[in-house]
Design brief:
about 400 residues; alpha/beta; nine-stranded parallel beta sheet; eight-stranded mixed beta sheet; about 30% strand; globular
Length: about 400
């Protein structure tokens, strides 16, 4: 069945006006100014809603009460389905730091879930760790933070060619060699949970690192030494054009002022909006709910965010991608097209799927959303299949 969206405000850098979008065989078959509607077409009247590419979350640990580290393909599929209800059509399930055998089980589970999933595109897996700085561990388990060796890196990376992104601290011994190996394998290397100084980051860029994981969270910033100020990961991430950055725009991890600063420094082409969602993202939680992560770290839901039980740091968000876009658009005063780009085109390019996802254009996958001015999702389509519709 050929489907045609009409009366939609298409959010695409390629167009500035209302268009007719035709979908056939799971792809966008055309984007037209005018079109003769044929009898075999199913016409979808968007009624003036925005039409956008589906959101792409490249850093998310769980959702809907399920998570990656339980190593269950069924639970990973459910996690992806929960986020699809909020417009996330493509997802990169993300691990926490863990022993190599546990990570390999998680990788195998995501691989199996990818083959099972029909309501969400599982793009591969994002390994956040285990090669991190203990000084910037945040909600990561210190006991699970490892030093990379040739043996454990090979053991981990050889387990699946679906590893799309690895987060590591480049100042840790062995992590520059890790960056070079990731570049060789065409895996995005992201500076994560790092205590690096600016010069360390320059060395990391030369070794293949091209991204910063949740900037301002788990990152060094303006180190003081004998009265001298030394730039850290945050400053390098904002300044260096070689680096893209991941941003948790839940208004908890970062205030509006910092969201505006990041956007001013990096622009939409260098920012990926991420949820960093834990197992209970995309659900309704009661204030004070205590959740014990698979890594043994206890967290508590308070003030709309997950915190460590001692309240000394955030432990991850419960956000959804539509909320991130809303916050950038409505609170950080980012143009809607740019807010959408940061949740679609930019993350797609960051993990190597920008040729087929993240854009409303002929030949791209028909992952399509309709939403209103408050980014409330009214319809979600994955590969040309309608996942849900609240149009009536």
């Amino acid at each position: 069945m050929i489907k045609c969206f009409k009366n939609a405000k298409v959010l695409s850098p390629l167009y500035t006006d209302e268009r007719l979008v035709v979908v056939q065989d799971g792809k966008i078959a055309g984007v037209h100014n005018r079109l003769d509607i044929s009898p075999e077409m199913e016409v979808i009247d968007a009624k003036g809603l925005y039409l956008s590419p589906g959101f792409i979350d490249i850093h998310v640990h769980g959702g809907g009460g399920c998570g990656v580290m339980g190593c269950s393909p069924d639970e990973i599929v459910k996690m992806c389905q929960a986020h699809a209800q909020h417009g996330t059509t493509s997802i990169l399930p993300t691990t926490l730091a863990a022993p190599i055998p546990h990570l390999k089980r998680a990788i195998a589970a995501v691989k199996a879930a990818q083959a099972m999933s029909v309501d969400s595109n599982i793009l591969g897996i994002h390994l956040e760790g285990p090669f991190l700085s203990k000084n910037q561990k945040g909600a990561q388990s210190e006991d699970s933070i490892l030093v990379p060796t040739e043996e454990n890196v090979r053991d981990l990376l050889d387990s699946w060619d679906g590893i799309k992104m690895v987060g590591a601290a480049p100042e840790v011994c062995g992590c520059l060699a890790l960056g070079r190996e990731l570049r060789r394998r065409n895996i995005t290397a992201s500076i994560a949970h790092s205590d690096a100084r600016y010069d360390d980051v320059i060395n990391a860029i030369e070794a293949g690192y091209s991204d910063v994981t949740h900037i301002f969270s788990g990152c060094s910033s303006v180190i003081r030494e004998n009265g001298y100020r030394i730039a850290g990961v945050v400053e390098a991430g904002l300044l260096r054009d070689e680096l893209s950055v991941q941003v948790i725009a839940d208004l908890k991890h970062l205030p509006v002022s910092l969201l505006k600063l990041i956007y001013k420094c990096k622009g939409a082409d260098k920012i990926s909006l991420i949820t960093d969602g834990l197992d209970y993202s995309a659900t309704t939680l009661l204030e004070g709910t205590v959740y014990r992560q698979e890594n043994g770290v206890e967290t508590v839901y308070e003030d709309g965010v997950m915190k460590l039980i001692d309240r000394q740091a955030f432990a991850g968000s419960v956000a959804t991608c539509n909320k991130l876009v809303y916050n950038m658009y409505k609170h950080a005063d980012v143009p809607l097209l740019d807010a959408v780009k940061m949740a679609t085109m930019t993350p797609a390019r960051r993990v190597g799927v920008g040729h087929c996802k993240g854009l409303i254009a002929e030949g791209y996958d028909a992952d399509i959303l309709l939403f209103d001015n408050n980014i409330q999702i009214k319809m979600c389509m994955v590969s040309g299949k309608s996942i849900f519709s609240h149009m009536d």
